[in-house]
Design goal:
With 229 residues, this protein is an alpha+beta fold. It has two domains: 63 residues, Arc Repressor Mutant, subunit A (Orthogonal Bundle), CATH 1.10.10.10; 138 residues, Chorismate lyase-like (Chorismate lyase, 3-Layer(aba) Sandwich). Helix content is 28%, strand content 33%. It contains seven helices and nine strands. The strands form two sheets. Strands 4-5-6-9-8-7 form a six-stranded antiparallel sheet. The protein has a three-stranded antiparallel sheet with strand order 1-3-2. Strand 5 and strand 6 form a beta hairpin. Helix 1 crosses helix 3. The longest helix is centred in the first third of the chain and has 13 residues. The protein is elongated and about 65 Å long.
Length: 229
């Protein structure tokens, strides 16, 4: 059966998200891809155009087509990088990985992200500092069905959000903001008192119906959120 443009698009996207074609790498040209998939060049061209429109790849005349180093977001907002956020405040950024474990997705996470029973997830606890002071506590889950390569990624030097932004875009996102009270472990990480009010952001992201990640970001007392549109 001859491959359709949807087949080609899906397979190319799979190669990118699975890490076969890394961010910044050159993708075979349309003639080579047409031969690879056993289809017409026009079929490949349509698949490539849609991937470019989705912000996954970058096409340049005479320079070829590459996987975007930071895929363009098509949603109404950008996912911020805390490193840049802290730098914009004129502070020195520092990152620390507290823990990194693989586990079966707990019931609450499966319900929230609509994951199948038995789904595995990578659970990371990270801290981000501004001028040596606690700035953000990151409690993140990554769906290993969608991104199995995350299990082997090294998150000791940079946070999972930077890793995700460089590898996969999102088509849907859900964000909620709330006030909470710091519990024992959280108060230790944020250098505040138990019961102090803290600002919390919960964010879930999906790519074409498949859950990617859920994260809870917590900031120490006094944090102010500013957005631009």
């Amino acid at each position: 059966m001859t491959a359709t443009y949807k087949d080609v698009k899906s397979d190319i996207l799979s190669k990118i998200t699975q890490g076969d074609w890394a961010p910044g790498s050159l993708i075979p040209n349309e003639i080579e891809l047409a031969a690879m998939y056993g289809c017409a060049r026009a079929t490949v061209n349509r698949a490539m155009r849609e991937l470019a429109d989705d912000g996954i790849i970058e096409r340049r005349r005479k320079a070829g087509t590459r996987v975007r180093s930071a895929p363009i977001r098509q949603a109404r907002f950008d996912i911020p990088l805390v490193r840049n956020e802290i730098a914009e405040k004129g502070a020195e950024y520092r990152y620390s990985l507290v823990s990194c474990t693989v586990a079966d997705a707990p019931d609450w996470l499966r319900a929230r992200l609509k994951l199948d029973e038995g789904s595995r997830a990578l659970h990371l606890i990270c801290m981000h500092y501004a001028d040596g002071e606690p700035y953000q506590h990151e409690n993140r889950w990554i769906n290993l069905t969608a991104l199995p390569q995350a299990e082997d990624a090294d998150f000791n030097r940079s946070g999972p959000n930077e890793w995700l932004v460089a590898r996969i875009p999102y088509s849907d996102a859900e964000i909620s903001f709330s006030a909470a009270l710091a519990e024992d472990a959280l108060s230790d990480h944020l250098a505040c008192k138990v019961g102090d009010p803290v600002f919390t952001i919960d964010r879930s992201t999906w790519w074409q119906g498949q859950a990617i990640t859920f994260v809870t970001l917590t900031y120490r007392p006094g944090h102010r959120l500013t957005t631009r549109y």
